[in-house]
Specification:
The complex is a heterodimer of chains A (about 425) and B (about 260). Chain A is built from three helices and 24 strands. Chain B starts with 5 loop residues before the first helix and ends in a 20-residue tail after the last strand. Classes of the chains: A mainly beta (about 425), B mainly beta (about 260).
Chain lengths: ~425, ~260
């Protein structure tokens, strides 16, 4: 591996002036608010981006080191490695890459190309997404653009099955219980139109869900034990808009999901029950931003998830969509308000937020403090506190999240 | 009853007429000076590296390095942040229109998204500096009223016209008016004081220009927020003019591409 890497880097070094590096080192630790214990969860210790530019092309590779304090292990991964060419009409990129669709912040129902890494679910931006092998072509017109994406393999969400993390599926099936996808090809397109004070995008994506769903159960009524899982087929139609009205900016997204079982087949075995799932659901995010006194940015966001139709109808309560923004799946309907405040010559950044569950009692309060006394160095402190309702039982997500209330302290050096 | 003879009446009439005409000439001259400054020769396009130093009331500084391309006197502008490292890759595109609101977009590499931002919030600071989005936008002649205050005041050894610029109400400017010192030779800005809506001094700006080819090019700009005791110093380096930058350079697709040497 190292030989190939050296063979690759030597010719590149001949044109050293077109080689560029950047990245960061970011050790951090999380402490539980209830008892001060540390969490045995990995975090991204550092990231390195290397790029080589020539004429109208660029090759980029972004690697990351994931570290776990408890056993002092570090895993390295290539998060992205792609070639991008900039012809006169737009751009073409091929390789392992992360794409980002949607105008809203943090939660994007229309953004389904890449899977999510649940270990980093509470981060923002592309930090919580997993690169996929894909090709993208984008064409820019006068006031419009269109992007087409094709990807050759299905990438599921990276889920967490560890005691310290509250958001995890109830079952971690063995690989033998998971059906392979026959045709992993996924594709989508997105077209954007720009108007005077608005941008409008329409998107379509066809692929397989990022979360497993059970389609075969032991016939042991009244209890059904799932025994075989699949990634259902999914088609998503997305619409998103950004509108500028005076001092306010509105960012809205809505996605219509149609999902159906890919592996269902009729069976005469009476010891099992097999369901030919079809489901339709929508997710939406509606956000308004305002920049007020002293350039304080305030944003309020509604996000929601609504099931329209499920077959078989008697399984409607057990239906869970496997695509879309994770927070809409987790919280169903929630309201979030956040702010961003810069003080002391941009040395101190404060980002408070409140998320309120609109379905049941439960809320989250958080605050991120970033202090940068010297250029390229940031002292980071993040506080997240979850409050549930004891009357709703241990399975209620906010009650599970209470134990995850934490403070995270880190230091980041960027280069 | 006062007996005013014919000669006195004639003199008084002439004084009134001349006073009236002088005021009319002054108002026109204020607009004329503004128009001459607006129409002064400018390069078709310009590329430069920019150092931006922010200094707060306690003397703490933050420095950023940017690369800037402009066209048509700044009507089209694209800016890439090169340093510090945590801002590197952030870029900004501004396109001014005569018949509709300006378009502004921000590329955020951490999100791999281009964010459309509002050009209506004129008072919002650009990247934490003392320059607001309104400060970065060209002033259209028709959007303001101009009054000539002085014809020959010296600032930094430069003879200047002094004009008062008052934005029209429909512009919803953050400023009530500006007092601008314009060089009599070259018609470029030398100094400006900008007043907030309540008439208090808000910003002081000093413009330092250098003659490059046939143009007076801004090579340093100092902006001080008098109310917050905070200032921004912009220094333009490696200025290159008239390289035939096309409209295609000022498109969203170029926000993601940091210019390389």
């Amino acid at each position: 591996m190292i030989r190939y890497f050296l063979l690759f880097i030597i010719p590149i070094s001949i044109t050293f002036s077109q080689l560029h590096f950047s990245g960061f080192v970011n050790p951090s630790q999380m402490y539980g608010l209830k008892n001060g214990d540390t969490f045995n969860l990995p975090f991204r210790f550092g990231e390195l981006e290397a790029g080589y530019s020539f004429t109208n092309s660029e090759f980029k590779i972004i690697g990351a080191a994931e570290h776990r304090w408890t056993n002092m292990t570090t895993d390295f991964e290539i998060r992205e490695a792609y070639w991008i060419w900039y012809p006169s009409f737009g751009d073409i990129s091929i390789g392992k890459q992360i794409h980002a669709w949607g105008y809203a912040d943090a939660s994007n129902p229309t953004d389904n190309i890449n899977a999510y890494d649940y270990y980093y679910l509470f981060l923002t931006g592309i930090d919580r997404k997993i690169g996929s092998y894909s090709a993208s072509i984008r064409y820019y017109g006068e006031n419009w653009q269109v992007q087409g994406i094709i990807q050759t393999e299905h990438q599921p969400n990276r889920l967490v099955f560890e005691d310290d993390f509250p958001i995890q599926p109830p079952i971690n099936p063995p690989s033998s219980a998971i059906d392979d996808i026959d045709d992993e090809l996924e594709f989508g397109f997105r077209t954007q139109f720009s108007f005077d004070n608005s941008d409008l995008s329409i998107s379509y994506f066809h692929g397989h869900e990022r979360m497993l769903s059970a389609y075969t159960f032991n016939n042991s009524l009244p209890y059904l034990t799932p025994i075989q899982f699949e990634y259902r087929k999914s088609d998503i139609l997305g619409i998103d808009m950004v509108n500028l009205f005076g001092d306010f900016i509105f960012r809205n997204e809505i996605a219509f999901f149609t999902t159906k079982s890919d592996k269902y087949h009729s069976s005469a075995d009476i010891s099992i029950l097999m369901f030919n799932w079809t489901g339709k659901y929508i997710q939406y995010v509606s956000q308004v931003e305002y920049t007020g006194f002293s350039d304080i940015l305030i944003a309020a966001q509604f996000l929601g998830n609504h099931t329209i139709e499920v077959k078989p109808t008697f399984m409607e309560d057990f239906f869970q969509g496997g695509m879309g923004t994770p927070f809409a799946n987790i919280f169903e309907n929630a309201f979030l308000i956040s702010a961003a405040i810069d003080l002391f010559n941009n040395m101190l950044e404060i980002k408070p937020l409140i998320l309120v569950n609109l379905e049941d009692k439960g809320y989250m309060t958080g605050c991120e403090l970033n202090y940068s006394p010297i250029d390229n160095w940031i002292l980071e402190t993040t506080l997240n506190n979850f409050v549930g309702d004891d009357e709703l039982g241990d399975n209620y997500i906010f009650n599970q999240l209470e134990d995850f209330s934490h403070i995270k302290i880190g230091i980041k050096y960027s280069f | 009853m006062l007996n005013i003879n014919y000669t006195t009446k004639l003199v008084l009439s002439l004084v009134i007429i001349i006073t009236f005409l002088s005021q009319k000439i002054s108002a026109q001259t204020g607009m004329d000076i503004a128009k001459l400054s607006y129409d002064r020769p400018e390069p078709n396009d310009m590329t430069s590296d920019l150092s931006m130093v922010l200094t707060d009331s306690k003397g703490r500084t933050r420095e950023s390095t940017l690369h800037v391309m402009t066209q048509s006197g700044g009507e089209k502008q694209i800016i890439w942040f090169l340093a510090p490292a945590d801002d590197r890759g952030v870029s900004f595109l501004k396109i001014e229109y005569d018949d509709k609101d300006d378009e502004m977009r921000l590329w955020l590499p951490a999100f791999k998204k281009i964010r459309r931002i509002s050009s209506k919030k004129k008072s919002e600071a650009f990247m934490g500096s003392d320059m607001s989005y309104e400060d970065m936008t060209n002033r259209d002649l028709e959007d303001n009223e101009y009054t000539l205050l002085e014809t020959n005041e010296i600032v930094n050894e430069i003879n200047c016209y002094v004009i008062k610029t008052k934005p029209k109400k429909e512009l919803r400017s953050e400023y009530s008016h500006h007092i601008s010192w314009i060089a009599t030779d070259g018609l470029y800005p030398v100094k400006e004081e900008s007043y907030d809506r309540s008439g208090k001094l808000l910003k002081k700006k000093m413009f330092f220009s250098t003659r490059i080819d046939d143009y007076f090019i801004l090579t340093e700009l100092y902006v001080e927020n008098a109310q917050r005791n905070h200032n921004t110093r912009l220094t333009f380096q490696n200025v290159i003019l008239n390289t035939s930058l096309g409209d295609s350079e000022f498109q969203e697709k170029n926000l993601k591409r940091i210019p390389r040497d």
